[in-house]
Design goal:
The structure holds two protein chains of two kinds.
Chain A: H1 2-39, H2 43-52, H3 54-87, H4 90-105, H5 108-119, H6 124-131, H7 145-168, H8 174-181, H9 186-197, H10 199-214, H11 218-223, H12 231-240, H13 245-272, H14 313-340, H15 342-346, H16 363-369, H17 372-403, H18 410-418, H19 425-438, H20 445-469, H21 473-481, H22 486-515, H23 518-523, H24 531-541, H25 545-586
Helix pairs in contact in A: 1-13, 1-17, 1-19, 2-3, 2-13, 3-4, 3-7, 3-10, 3-14, 4-7, 4-14, 5-7, 7-10, 8-9, 10-13, 12-13, 13-19, 16-25, 17-20, 17-22, 17-24, 20-22, 21-22, 22-25
Chain B: E1 9-18, E2 21-31, E3 36-40, H1 47-55, E4 62-67, E5 70-71, E6 82-85, H2 97-107, H3 112-125, H4 141-153, E7 159-163, H5 171-188, E8 191-196, H6 199-205, E9 208-213, E10 216-221, H7 223-228, H8 233-238, E11 243-246, E12 248-250, E13 255-258, E14 261-264, E15 273-277, E16 282-286, E17 298-307, E18 311-318, E19 323-329, E20 343-348, E21 354-357
Parallel strand pairs in B: 3-8, 3-9, 6-7, 7-8
Antiparallel strand pairs in B: 1-2, 1-4, 4-5, 9-10, 11-15, 12-13, 13-14, 15-21, 16-20, 17-18, 17-20, 18-19
Helix pairs in contact in B: 2-3, 2-4, 3-4
Classes of the chains: A mainly alpha, B alpha+beta.
Amino acid sequence: MTRIQEMIDWRKACLLAPVTILLLVAFVLPLLYIVPEAFSGDAFKRFLRIFQSPVYTKIIWTTVRISFEATAITLFVSFPLAWLLSRSKGIGALLLGLVVLVPFLTSVLVRTFAWLAILGQKGLVNATLLSLGLISEPLPLLFSETAVVLALVHSAIPMMVFALFSVLRRIDGRILLAAHTLGANPARAWFGMVVPLAIRGIQSGVIIVFLFTMATFIAPAFLGNQRQQMLAQVIQSEIETGANWSLAAALGITLAGVATLIVVALSIFLGIFSRWQNPREATQGDIKHIPPTVDRSVLRNPVKRSEPRFNMSRLWRVVVKYAAPTYIALISTFLLLPLLVLFPVAFSSAEVLVFPPPGFSLRWFEEIVNSPEWIEAAWTSFQIGAATSVLTLTLATLTVLGFGHKFRYRNAAEALMLSPMTVPAVVFALGAYLSFSKVGLVDTKMGIILAHTVLGFPVVYLVAAATFSSIDPGLAKAAASLGANPFRAFNTVTFPLLLPGLSVGALLAMLNSFDESIASIFLSNLSVKTLPRKLWEGIRFNTSPEAAAVSAMLLTATCLIILLGIMVIIKRQKRSSPALQANSESA
Amino acid sequence: MNDEPLAAVSFQGVTRRYGSVTAVRDIDLDIAPGEFFALLGPSGSGKTTLLMLLAGFDQPSDGQVLMSGTPISDFPPHRRRIGVVFQNYALFPHMTAAENVAYPLKMRGVPRDERDNRVNAALGIVSLSDRGASYPSQLSGGQQQRVALARALVFGPDVLLMDEPLGALDRRLRDQMQIELKRIQHELGVTVIYVTHDQSEAMAMADRVGVMSGGELLQVADPETIYAEPANHFVARFIGECSILRVASFDGGKGYEISGARQLLPTPSTAPFDIVVRPENVALRSIESSNPSGQFGIPVTIREITYVGSGWRVSTELDDGQSLLANIPRGHDLAGNLADGLNVIATWDPTSVAILPAEETTEANQQGEKK
C-alpha cells in the first residue's frame, strides 16, 4: 500500500514540477531579486530619503488615500450589481454578466484612455454641458484626483463584482424570506442577512481591488497631475528613464510593505465579522444559567407590535419595482460608456480629441493600417499572446491533473499557484525587469512571455480546476474498468470533458496577455514592442484619435473573443443538458 | 357575524395565475383556531403557492385571504402574524441558535428582559436549552429543525406554517419530531398549517387533511374519513394502498356486480360508480373451502407475492383482468402454499367498500400507489 502511494506521489510530483519550477524561477526569484538591489550600497540613506523627504511621504500618503477612496466607492457601487447578478437567470444573467465581463476583459490602458475623451476640455461631458447651456466655460475635470478615482473605480468594479458574486450566489434566498416572515422589513432583512453573509466576498474583493489600485500607474499618469503622483508611477518612471534602479527597488519594497500591512490589517478587521464561519465549540462558560423551570406559558401570548403610522408596504413595492431597473441603467451606462465613446472618436476627422467629432473619416484607421510600427506591434502581441496561451494552458492542465481529486498538500500548493494574484503587479514587473536584465531577457519576446505566463496562470488554473472538479472521478474509474489504460482513459474521457474549460481558459490567457500593460511596459522597449506598450507611448506623447482607433480595434477584437467564449460555453451546455435532464428525471 | 368563532385562516375563492398557468384554482377553505391542518399533495399540486399567498410573498389573482376575519392583502409578510418553518429551515448561519430565536423579537422591539425570557422558553419547549450558544453549522439536522421551530413560535404567532418541515430528516427522527410537534401544538394551542407530500405524516398528525392536486382542493376531511371515504380516484390512490374496481350496478344502484357475484351497498348510489377496496379488508380463502350461506366471493388468481413482515401482500387478477390487492396475515390457512397462479376466492365486507364517481380512464384499474 505504501509503495503504491509512493508511486502515485511521484506521478503527481512530475505533473506539478513544471509549474513549480516556472513560478520559482520566473516569479519568486525576481521578487527576491528586488531585495539586494534595494539594499545595495548605502541602503540606510536611501530609505531615510524615502521616509523623510516630504515628496515621498506625500506620494505614499496619496497612494494609500486614493486606493482607499477607490476601494470604498467600488465596494459600494458593486454590491447591488453583484447581488442582482447572483439572483438573475437566463438571458438577464447573460446580459448583466456581459456588462461586467466586457470591461473586465478590455485593456486597462484602453479604458483609462477613454476617460480622456469623456472628461477632457473638449470631451463628452463638457461638450454636453456646454451645449445644454449649463456652463459657459469647460470644467477642469481632467488631471484631478476625481478623474483618477473615477477611472480606478471603473477598472475595479468587475473584479469586485466577481469576488462578491462567487459568495453571493451561494446565499439561500429563503433566508431572506425567513427574515421577512419573522418581522424584518425588506431593507432590514437585506442588510441584516446579505451583507454579513457576503463578508468573505467583501474581504477578498476589497483586498484584490486595494492591491490593484495600489499598484496602478496608468490612471494617475494619464488622468492625474503632479499632486496625484502615486508610488507605482514613480517606480515606473525611475525604470523608464533608467535613473536609479536601487531607488526603484527600494520604492518597490516600500509599496509591497505598505500594501501588505494594510491588507493584513484589513483581513484581521474583516475577519472579526466572519468568525461565525469557524465557530469554536461552545464551552460551559458560554451557557447562560437557565432557571430549571422556564415559564413556557409566555409563548401563548402574542408579542405586541405597534402599528406603523404609515403603511409602507405600497411604498416598498414601488421602491422595489423601480430601484433595481434605475440602478442597472446607471451602472451599465457607467461601465459601458467609456468603451462606446471610443468609436465616434476613432472615426473622427479632427487632429485632436474633440467631442462631438467635427466630421467622420477613416483617416486614423488608414494611418494605423499603413503604419509598419502598429502592424509590427500587433503581430508581436499576437505571437506573445499565442505562446503565452499555449504555455499557460499546458501548465494548468498538468497542475490540475497533478492535484487530482485528492491531494494532501493542496491548500499550501494552491497558495503558491495563486500567489501571482496576491502581489501588486507593478512589484512583480519591477522584479522581473531587474532580474531579467541580468540574463538578457529584457526587451525580448521570451521575457514577456514568461512574465505573462506567470500573471495569467492563476486565472486559467482556476477555470481549469473548476471544470475538473465538476467531472465525476468515477468516470475515469469506469473507463479503467472497461479496459482503458490510464493514458487512454485520459485521452478518451477526462480530456474531452476538460476541453471546454480549457478552451475558455486559453481564450482568457490570450486576452490577458494581449491586453496586459504593466509587465509589457516594463519589459518591452525598442526591439520588442507590444501593442499596449506602443499604445502607452502613443497616449503619453500625443493624445490623438489614432490611439482611439487602436483602442476601438482592440475592443472589437476583445468582444469577438468573448463571443467565441460564450459560444463554446453554450455549446457545452447544450451537449450536457440532455444528460442532465435524464438525471433529474430519474432522481 | 354568526356565533361560530372566526376562522383563524380563511381562503375565499382564491385563484393564482402565472400567465396562462393556473397554480391554484378557486380555493375555499376555513381553518379553525387551534386546528392542526395538513395540506397534502404531490409536488406541483399548488400547496406551496397557497402557502406563499398566506405568508404574503405572493398576491392572489382573484379572491382573498383572511385571518380572523380581516383581509390581509395589504399586510406585507413582516406584518402578518405568521410563523413560518421553511423546508430547509433557512436558519441564519451567522447567528447562534439563541440569536436566531431572538431575531423576531428584536424586529418587534421587545425589551431585553422579556426577550431573554421568551428565548429561554422557546428553546426549552424544543428541548434545546443547552445549545443556545451554538451556530447552526454546529447543530445536527434535527436540532436545526428545532431551532427553526422555536424561532417561528417565539413571538406568539396566530398561525404556524410549516413547509415540508421533516422532509430532510431520517425516518426515526421524523417519527420522534411528529410526536413532539403534536405535543408543542397542544401546549401552545397555536393553529398549524402543515404542508407535506407524505400522506402517512399528514394522517398521523392532522386534525383535518386537505388533499390538493393540479391546483385544486379535492377533499377536506378528518384522516379517518379521507381514508375510508375518499372523494375520488386521485384521493383514493394518494392515501394508502387500495384497489379501484370497475363494477356494474344493478337495481338502480342498490348494489353492484363483479365477476358474477353481487353485493348490496349499505347506501345505494344512483350515479355510475367504481369501488375502492383496501387490501387489509380483503379476505382470501381456498376454492375448496366451504362457502357458508352463499356469501359474496369472487374467483381470483394470485400473480405476485411480497413478504412484508407481518404477513404477505399479494396481487391478484380477476377474470376480467382487473387487479386486486390483498393482505394475508401470518398463520392464515393459505400461508403455507401461496404460489403464483393459484386460484382462490376473494371476499370483503360491504361496509368496508367505498364508492367513487366512475372515471372513464384506461388506468381506472391501476393499483393505488403510495405518494
